[in-house]
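Budget justification note: compute hours in this period were largely spent on complex prediction jobs such as the one shown. Inputs:
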Amino acid sequence: MSDSTAIAHGAHDAPEHGHEAHPPYLRHHFENVEQQADAAGFAMWLFLLTEVMFFGGLFTAYLIYRNWYYPAFVAASHQLNIFWGTLNTLLLISSSFTMAMGVWCAEVRKKSGLVLCLVLTFILGIGFLGIKTIEYKEKFEKNHIPGAHYSLNSFLNPDSDDAAKAAGDKPLPLDMARHTEVYFSLYFAMTGMHALHMIIGIAILGFMIYRAQAGAYTAGHVTFVENFGLYWHFVDIVWIFLFPLLYLISRHANT
Amino acid sequence: MTDQKEMEEAQHHVVSPTVYVVIFLALLVFTALTVGASYVEMGIFNPIAAILIACVKAVIVVLFFMHVKYSSKLTKLTVFCGLFTFLALIGMTLADYISRAWGRW
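Corresponding output:
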């Protein structure tokens, strides 16, 4: 298999042809390496589509409840910290970038580059979860976890709450204030499922760093790295939608 | 980067780091834009702007980070079908809600 420059110069067919009759990583039920990679990529996309449908259900619930209980959603979203949210967005976008660079390193067989990219992605992912923990902790302290101990104080007496006061919130009527719990249910369901995907991704990243150091992905067989990259970018896309929908509902003072 | 036909034909097109850097910078700009836009009073256009920017970001991630622009027709069709089904399901759900109890919750 030639390096990337040969591909850029127009060798559009599989570089493996005629080079080696049977690369060790080619499964016997595939005609050639290209078909194997296509099948794996196709399957990965099908999996991601099931994920789209899964998160799509949550987004649809959000869309409907937001339209029904808009004042509650505005007041509740003011409880989220824009600084942490933006920082997390930057971390996740950066981790997507380092992951994309990792795929490139694997394709052009740069082992140390690949390991570095995977480690950076790993660290940025951990950083994201760390900030999420800080945010969740604050919700616990303010009793904004849906359930028996849920507190309406920030929404009935916004002046007693720093975040609500800073946003210039007016007190909500009791029935509307109670619907802030719906917002936080969706907030924890959506960011929680997203965080679970991050945790799974980080675990796989750890495994990949270990394997990459042994040179597993820089010998021509990049399918695993490539498809993990798809997963990681998908998780990034979910956050790209979660961030404006949950954090940025209505930040201008006169709502 | 190279000419268009080659890109589409190449099964294992290696996307160059330059593309990744450009996309990364674009994502950072759009993130700043979406935060900034949320502080501006635009009425009904606030959520529209937020969704629009998020969609642009998602599309460039899918096309370039996820290599769909350089992928086979099968992959492109798969992604498009998924998106279409997703939008159809949301559309049908909303049609149901809007036509039943909207305003009487």
